[in-house]
Write a structure and sequence with these properties.
- By secondary structure, the protein is an alpha/beta fold.
- The protein folds into 2 domains: 237 residues, Aspartate Aminotransferase, domain 2, CATH 3.40.640.10; 134 residues, Aspartate Aminotransferase, domain 1, CATH 3.90.1150.10.
- The protein has a 7-stranded mixed sheet, sandwiched between helices. The chain has a 5-stranded mixed sheet with strand order 8-9-12-11-10, covered by helices on one side.
- Helix 6 links the parallel strand 4 and strand 5.
- It is globular and about 85 Å long.
- It comes from Actinomadura montaniterrae.
- One of its GO terms (biological process) is cysteine biosynthetic process via cystathionine.
Length: 381
Protein backbone atom coordinates (compact mmCIF):
# COMPACT_ATOMS: atom_id res chain seq x y z
CA UNK A 1 0.00 0.00 0.00
CA UNK A 2 1.32 3.44 -0.93
CA UNK A 3 -0.90 5.64 1.22
CA UNK A 4 -0.46 6.06 4.95
CA UNK A 5 -2.72 3.86 7.03
CA UNK A 6 -5.17 5.30 9.53
CA UNK A 7 -4.40 4.88 13.21
CA UNK A 8 -7.05 2.24 13.72
CA UNK A 9 -5.92 0.15 10.76
CA UNK A 10 -2.31 0.49 11.88
CA UNK A 11 -3.13 -0.58 15.44
CA UNK A 12 -5.13 -3.61 14.32
CA UNK A 13 -2.40 -5.01 12.07
CA UNK A 14 0.78 -3.78 13.74
CA UNK A 15 3.44 -6.43 14.18
CA UNK A 16 1.29 -9.33 13.05
CA UNK A 17 2.96 -11.90 10.79
CA UNK A 18 1.76 -12.52 7.23
CA UNK A 19 -1.30 -14.74 7.02
CA UNK A 20 -0.42 -18.43 6.96
CA UNK A 21 -2.77 -21.28 6.25
CA UNK A 22 -4.19 -22.80 9.44
CA UNK A 23 -2.11 -20.51 11.66
CA UNK A 24 -3.64 -18.06 14.16
CA UNK A 25 -3.41 -14.40 13.13
CA UNK A 26 -1.39 -13.71 16.28
CA UNK A 27 0.76 -16.65 17.41
CA UNK A 28 0.40 -17.59 21.06
CA UNK A 29 3.05 -16.77 23.67
CA UNK A 30 6.34 -18.64 23.39
CA UNK A 31 7.32 -19.99 26.81
CA UNK A 32 11.01 -20.78 26.57
CA UNK A 33 13.99 -20.38 28.88
CA UNK A 34 16.27 -21.76 26.18
CA UNK A 35 16.15 -22.89 22.55
CA UNK A 36 17.56 -25.85 20.65
CA UNK A 37 20.93 -24.50 19.61
CA UNK A 38 23.35 -26.94 17.99
CA UNK A 39 26.68 -25.67 16.72
CA UNK A 40 27.73 -22.04 17.12
CA UNK A 41 25.50 -19.93 19.43
CA UNK A 42 24.22 -17.59 16.76
CA UNK A 43 20.74 -16.92 15.50
CA UNK A 44 17.67 -14.91 16.37
CA UNK A 45 16.84 -16.95 19.48
CA UNK A 46 19.60 -18.28 21.68
CA UNK A 47 18.60 -17.82 25.31
CA UNK A 48 15.40 -16.74 27.03
CA UNK A 49 16.85 -13.65 28.68
CA UNK A 50 18.08 -12.32 25.32
CA UNK A 51 15.15 -12.70 22.94
CA UNK A 52 11.74 -14.30 22.58
CA UNK A 53 9.50 -14.64 19.51
CA UNK A 54 6.57 -13.08 21.40
CA UNK A 55 8.66 -10.00 22.26
CA UNK A 56 9.77 -9.78 18.64
CA UNK A 57 6.20 -9.38 17.38
CA UNK A 58 5.24 -6.92 20.13
CA UNK A 59 8.34 -4.80 19.55
CA UNK A 60 7.68 -4.74 15.82
CA UNK A 61 4.10 -3.62 16.51
CA UNK A 62 5.07 -0.80 18.86
CA UNK A 63 7.80 0.23 16.43
CA UNK A 64 5.16 0.72 13.74
CA UNK A 65 2.99 2.74 16.13
CA UNK A 66 5.99 4.92 17.01
CA UNK A 67 6.29 5.88 13.35
CA UNK A 68 9.10 3.46 12.55
CA UNK A 69 11.57 2.62 15.33
CA UNK A 70 13.70 0.01 17.04
CA UNK A 71 11.84 -1.02 20.19
CA UNK A 72 13.04 -2.79 23.32
CA UNK A 73 10.32 -4.07 25.64
CA UNK A 74 10.67 -4.30 29.41
CA UNK A 75 9.00 -5.85 32.42
CA UNK A 76 7.60 -2.48 33.58
CA UNK A 77 7.59 1.20 32.77
CA UNK A 78 10.19 1.88 35.45
CA UNK A 79 12.42 -0.83 34.01
CA UNK A 80 12.29 1.01 30.68
CA UNK A 81 12.92 4.41 32.29
CA UNK A 82 15.82 3.10 34.35
CA UNK A 83 17.30 1.37 31.30
CA UNK A 84 17.65 4.66 29.44
CA UNK A 85 18.92 6.68 32.38
CA UNK A 86 21.34 4.08 33.69
CA UNK A 87 22.64 2.84 30.32
CA UNK A 88 23.39 6.29 28.92
CA UNK A 89 24.80 8.13 31.93
CA UNK A 90 28.31 7.83 33.38
CA UNK A 91 30.05 9.38 36.36
CA UNK A 92 30.39 13.12 35.83
CA UNK A 93 27.61 13.34 33.24
CA UNK A 94 24.93 15.99 33.67
CA UNK A 95 21.28 14.86 33.55
CA UNK A 96 18.38 17.31 33.33
CA UNK A 97 15.14 16.05 34.88
CA UNK A 98 11.73 17.67 35.28
CA UNK A 99 11.05 18.27 38.97
CA UNK A 100 7.35 17.49 38.44
CA UNK A 101 7.63 14.19 36.57
CA UNK A 102 6.47 10.78 37.81
CA UNK A 103 7.70 10.50 41.38
CA UNK A 104 9.48 7.16 40.92
CA UNK A 105 11.45 8.62 38.01
CA UNK A 106 12.52 11.42 40.36
CA UNK A 107 13.50 8.77 42.89
CA UNK A 108 16.31 7.75 40.51
CA UNK A 109 17.99 11.09 41.23
CA UNK A 110 19.75 9.77 44.32
CA UNK A 111 20.82 6.58 42.53
CA UNK A 112 22.30 8.56 39.64
CA UNK A 113 24.07 10.90 42.05
CA UNK A 114 25.51 7.91 43.92
CA UNK A 115 27.12 6.90 40.62
CA UNK A 116 28.67 10.34 40.26
CA UNK A 117 26.18 11.94 37.87
CA UNK A 118 25.13 15.56 38.29
CA UNK A 119 21.36 16.15 38.35
CA UNK A 120 19.68 19.42 37.44
CA UNK A 121 15.93 19.85 37.80
CA UNK A 122 13.35 22.33 36.50
CA UNK A 123 9.57 22.34 35.95
CA UNK A 124 7.93 21.07 32.77
CA UNK A 125 5.88 24.22 32.18
CA UNK A 126 7.42 27.09 30.26
CA UNK A 127 10.19 24.90 28.79
CA UNK A 128 12.13 25.67 31.97
CA UNK A 129 14.57 22.83 31.35
CA UNK A 130 16.07 24.83 28.50
CA UNK A 131 17.91 26.97 31.04
CA UNK A 132 19.85 23.93 32.32
CA UNK A 133 21.20 22.40 29.12
CA UNK A 134 24.81 23.58 29.19
CA UNK A 135 27.10 20.56 29.32
CA UNK A 136 24.26 18.06 29.68
CA UNK A 137 24.53 14.47 28.50
CA UNK A 138 20.83 13.57 28.73
CA UNK A 139 17.62 15.57 29.03
CA UNK A 140 14.56 13.75 30.36
CA UNK A 141 11.17 15.17 29.35
CA UNK A 142 7.70 14.15 30.51
CA UNK A 143 4.83 15.80 28.66
CA UNK A 144 2.04 15.93 29.66
CA UNK A 145 3.50 15.67 33.14
CA UNK A 146 2.09 13.31 35.73
CA UNK A 147 0.03 14.30 37.68
CA UNK A 148 -0.15 18.06 37.00
CA UNK A 149 -0.63 17.80 33.20
CA UNK A 150 1.82 20.54 32.29
CA UNK A 151 3.20 20.48 28.75
CA UNK A 152 6.48 21.56 27.19
CA UNK A 153 7.45 22.09 23.56
CA UNK A 154 9.25 18.88 22.60
CA UNK A 155 10.64 20.06 19.26
CA UNK A 156 11.98 23.28 20.77
CA UNK A 157 13.62 21.47 23.68
CA UNK A 158 15.09 18.83 21.39
CA UNK A 159 16.63 21.43 19.10
CA UNK A 160 18.21 23.29 22.02
CA UNK A 161 19.38 20.07 23.68
CA UNK A 162 20.98 18.74 20.52
CA UNK A 163 22.76 22.04 20.00
CA UNK A 164 24.15 21.59 23.51
CA UNK A 165 25.25 18.03 22.67
CA UNK A 166 22.64 16.25 24.77
CA UNK A 167 20.38 13.30 24.06
CA UNK A 168 16.65 13.71 24.71
CA UNK A 169 14.33 11.07 26.13
CA UNK A 170 10.58 11.70 26.33
CA UNK A 171 8.29 9.85 28.71
CA UNK A 172 5.26 9.46 26.44
CA UNK A 173 3.20 7.29 28.78
CA UNK A 174 0.12 9.47 29.02
CA UNK A 175 -0.15 10.28 25.29
CA UNK A 176 0.89 6.92 23.75
CA UNK A 177 2.29 6.87 20.19
CA UNK A 178 -1.20 7.52 18.77
CA UNK A 179 -1.45 10.71 20.79
CA UNK A 180 2.07 12.02 20.33
CA UNK A 181 5.21 10.83 18.55
CA UNK A 182 8.33 12.20 20.24
CA UNK A 183 10.64 10.60 17.68
CA UNK A 184 8.93 12.55 14.89
CA UNK A 185 9.63 15.70 16.93
CA UNK A 186 13.33 14.86 17.04
CA UNK A 187 13.70 13.05 20.38
CA UNK A 188 16.30 10.31 20.64
CA UNK A 189 14.16 8.08 22.85
CA UNK A 190 10.43 7.61 23.31
CA UNK A 191 9.79 5.78 26.57
CA UNK A 192 6.52 4.59 28.10
CA UNK A 193 4.92 2.55 30.80
CA UNK A 194 2.78 0.27 28.66
CA UNK A 195 1.01 -0.75 31.85
CA UNK A 196 -1.13 2.34 31.29
CA UNK A 197 -3.06 3.42 28.18
CA UNK A 198 -1.10 1.51 25.54
CA UNK A 199 -2.37 -1.85 26.79
CA UNK A 200 -5.31 -0.29 28.59
CA UNK A 201 -6.85 -3.05 30.67
CA UNK A 202 -5.10 -2.64 34.00
CA UNK A 203 -4.03 -6.28 34.09
CA UNK A 204 -0.33 -6.32 33.21
CA UNK A 205 2.97 -4.53 33.79
CA UNK A 206 5.13 -3.62 30.78
CA UNK A 207 7.25 -0.82 29.37
CA UNK A 208 9.17 0.00 26.23
CA UNK A 209 11.94 2.15 24.81
CA UNK A 210 11.79 3.25 21.17
CA UNK A 211 14.59 4.87 19.18
CA UNK A 212 15.65 5.27 15.55
CA UNK A 213 19.34 4.99 16.41
CA UNK A 214 20.55 1.38 16.18
CA UNK A 215 23.48 1.99 18.52
CA UNK A 216 21.21 3.49 21.19
CA UNK A 217 18.78 0.60 20.78
CA UNK A 218 21.59 -1.91 21.22
CA UNK A 219 22.86 -0.18 24.36
CA UNK A 220 19.39 -0.34 25.91
CA UNK A 221 18.93 -3.95 24.79
CA UNK A 222 22.26 -4.88 26.38
CA UNK A 223 21.14 -3.23 29.62
CA UNK A 224 17.96 -5.31 29.59
CA UNK A 225 19.96 -8.49 29.09
CA UNK A 226 22.45 -7.59 31.80
CA UNK A 227 19.94 -6.74 34.54
CA UNK A 228 17.29 -9.22 33.38
CA UNK A 229 14.41 -6.71 33.20
CA UNK A 230 12.59 -8.81 30.61
CA UNK A 231 8.85 -9.02 29.97
CA UNK A 232 7.01 -12.28 30.43
CA UNK A 233 5.77 -13.90 27.22
CA UNK A 234 2.17 -13.95 28.41
CA UNK A 235 2.29 -10.23 29.26
CA UNK A 236 3.86 -9.47 25.87
CA UNK A 237 1.18 -11.48 24.06
CA UNK A 238 -1.65 -9.82 26.01
CA UNK A 239 -0.16 -6.43 25.23
CA UNK A 240 0.01 -7.17 21.50
CA UNK A 241 -3.56 -8.46 21.50
CA UNK A 242 -4.69 -5.26 23.26
CA UNK A 243 -3.14 -2.95 20.65
CA UNK A 244 -5.90 -3.75 18.18
CA UNK A 245 -8.37 -1.64 20.17
CA UNK A 246 -5.94 1.19 20.94
CA UNK A 247 -7.46 3.82 18.66
CA UNK A 248 -11.00 2.92 19.77
CA UNK A 249 -10.05 3.16 23.44
CA UNK A 250 -8.11 6.41 23.10
CA UNK A 251 -10.80 8.16 21.09
CA UNK A 252 -13.50 7.15 23.56
CA UNK A 253 -11.36 8.15 26.54
CA UNK A 254 -10.47 11.50 24.99
CA UNK A 255 -14.12 12.30 24.35
CA UNK A 256 -15.09 11.20 27.85
CA UNK A 257 -12.27 13.18 29.44
CA UNK A 258 -13.36 16.31 27.62
CA UNK A 259 -16.96 15.78 28.71
CA UNK A 260 -15.88 15.37 32.33
CA UNK A 261 -13.60 18.39 32.23
CA UNK A 262 -16.36 20.57 30.75
CA UNK A 263 -18.78 19.41 33.45
CA UNK A 264 -16.31 20.05 36.28
CA UNK A 265 -15.73 23.61 35.04
CA UNK A 266 -19.25 24.42 36.22
CA UNK A 267 -18.73 23.24 39.80
CA UNK A 268 -17.69 25.85 42.40
CA UNK A 269 -16.17 23.12 44.59
CA UNK A 270 -13.60 22.39 41.87
CA UNK A 271 -10.51 24.55 41.37
CA UNK A 272 -7.24 24.03 39.52
CA UNK A 273 -8.92 22.00 36.78
CA UNK A 274 -6.42 20.75 34.21
CA UNK A 275 -6.94 18.96 30.92
CA UNK A 276 -4.77 19.81 27.88
CA UNK A 277 -7.76 19.44 25.55
CA UNK A 278 -9.62 22.36 27.12
CA UNK A 279 -9.12 25.48 24.97
CA UNK A 280 -8.50 27.60 28.08
CA UNK A 281 -6.05 25.17 29.71
CA UNK A 282 -2.56 26.71 30.17
CA UNK A 283 -1.06 23.78 28.22
CA UNK A 284 -3.53 23.75 25.34
CA UNK A 285 -1.66 25.86 22.80
CA UNK A 286 1.50 23.75 22.86
CA UNK A 287 -0.39 20.49 23.34
CA UNK A 288 -2.56 21.17 20.28
CA UNK A 289 0.59 21.73 18.22
CA UNK A 290 2.28 18.43 19.08
CA UNK A 291 -0.48 16.07 20.25
CA UNK A 292 -3.12 14.30 18.17
CA UNK A 293 -5.04 13.14 21.24
CA UNK A 294 -5.00 14.75 24.66
CA UNK A 295 -5.18 11.68 26.87
CA UNK A 296 -7.47 10.22 29.48
CA UNK A 297 -6.31 12.04 32.62
CA UNK A 298 -8.12 15.01 34.17
CA UNK A 299 -6.77 16.59 37.35
CA UNK A 300 -8.49 18.98 39.76
CA UNK A 301 -8.47 20.17 43.34
CA UNK A 302 -11.30 19.77 45.85
CA UNK A 303 -11.55 21.91 48.99
CA UNK A 304 -9.51 19.70 51.30
CA UNK A 305 -8.43 16.13 52.04
CA UNK A 306 -11.65 15.21 53.84
CA UNK A 307 -13.82 16.50 50.98
CA UNK A 308 -11.72 14.60 48.43
CA UNK A 309 -11.98 11.36 50.42
CA UNK A 310 -15.76 11.76 50.72
CA UNK A 311 -15.94 12.40 46.98
CA UNK A 312 -13.88 9.33 46.11
CA UNK A 313 -15.88 7.14 48.45
CA UNK A 314 -19.20 8.36 47.03
CA UNK A 315 -18.54 7.31 43.43
CA UNK A 316 -20.17 4.07 42.33
CA UNK A 317 -18.64 3.46 38.89
CA UNK A 318 -15.10 4.65 39.55
CA UNK A 319 -12.35 2.57 41.17
CA UNK A 320 -9.89 4.10 43.61
CA UNK A 321 -6.55 3.13 42.05
CA UNK A 322 -3.14 4.66 41.50
CA UNK A 323 -2.69 3.80 37.83
CA UNK A 324 -4.28 5.40 34.76
CA UNK A 325 -5.17 4.55 31.19
CA UNK A 326 -7.45 1.58 31.86
CA UNK A 327 -10.80 1.02 30.19
CA UNK A 328 -12.21 1.29 33.71
CA UNK A 329 -12.43 4.81 35.18
CA UNK A 330 -10.33 5.31 38.29
CA UNK A 331 -9.33 8.16 40.56
CA UNK A 332 -7.20 8.86 43.58
CA UNK A 333 -6.24 11.61 45.98
CA UNK A 334 -2.69 11.91 44.75
CA UNK A 335 -1.30 13.48 47.91
CA UNK A 336 -1.77 10.25 49.84
CA UNK A 337 1.60 9.05 48.51
CA UNK A 338 3.50 12.11 49.68
CA UNK A 339 5.80 12.28 46.65
CA UNK A 340 4.16 15.02 44.57
CA UNK A 341 3.89 18.75 45.30
CA UNK A 342 0.10 18.77 45.20
CA UNK A 343 -2.59 20.10 47.49
CA UNK A 344 -4.34 17.71 49.94
CA UNK A 345 -7.53 17.78 47.86
CA UNK A 346 -5.79 17.13 44.51
CA UNK A 347 -7.49 14.38 42.51
CA UNK A 348 -6.03 12.60 39.48
CA UNK A 349 -8.88 11.11 37.49
CA UNK A 350 -8.32 8.52 34.77
CA UNK A 351 -11.33 8.45 32.46
CA UNK A 352 -12.35 5.07 31.08
CA UNK A 353 -14.52 3.97 28.18
CA UNK A 354 -17.84 3.83 30.01
CA UNK A 355 -20.64 6.00 28.60
CA UNK A 356 -19.78 9.65 29.10
CA UNK A 357 -23.12 10.53 30.68
CA UNK A 358 -22.66 7.78 33.25
CA UNK A 359 -19.16 8.90 34.21
CA UNK A 360 -20.18 12.55 34.43
CA UNK A 361 -23.33 11.69 36.34
CA UNK A 362 -21.43 9.56 38.85
CA UNK A 363 -18.80 12.25 39.41
CA UNK A 364 -21.26 15.11 39.83
CA UNK A 365 -23.41 13.03 42.19
CA UNK A 366 -20.31 12.32 44.26
CA UNK A 367 -19.47 16.04 44.40
CA UNK A 368 -23.04 16.70 45.53
CA UNK A 369 -22.82 14.01 48.20
CA UNK A 370 -19.49 15.27 49.51
CA UNK A 371 -20.83 18.83 49.61
CA UNK A 372 -23.95 17.70 51.46
CA UNK A 373 -21.85 15.89 54.06
CA UNK A 374 -19.72 18.99 54.59
CA UNK A 375 -22.84 21.11 55.07
CA UNK A 376 -24.28 18.57 57.50
CA UNK A 377 -21.11 18.56 59.57
CA UNK A 378 -21.20 22.36 59.65
CA UNK A 379 -24.81 22.37 60.77
CA UNK A 380 -24.12 19.82 63.49
CA UNK A 381 -21.37 22.03 64.83
Amino acid sequence: MTRELGDGTLAVGAGRPPAKKYAPPLPGPAFAAHYHLPGEPVGPYTYGRDTNPTWTLLEAAIGELEGGAEVVSFSSGMAAIAAVLLSQVRSGDVVVLPDDCYQTTRALKERLESYGAVIRMAPTAGNAQMELLDGARLVWVETPSNPNLDVCDIARLVEAAHEAGALVAVDNTLATPLGQRPLDLGADFSVASDTKALTGHGDLLLGHVATRDEALAESVRLWRKTVGAIPGPMEAWLAHRSLATLELRLDRQDANAMALAEALKERPEVVGLRYPGLPDDPSHEIAAKQMRRFGCVVSFVLPDEAFAERFLGAMRLVNQATSFGSVHSSAERRGRWGGDAVEPGFVRFSVGVENAQDIVGDVLAAVDEASAEVRKVGEDL
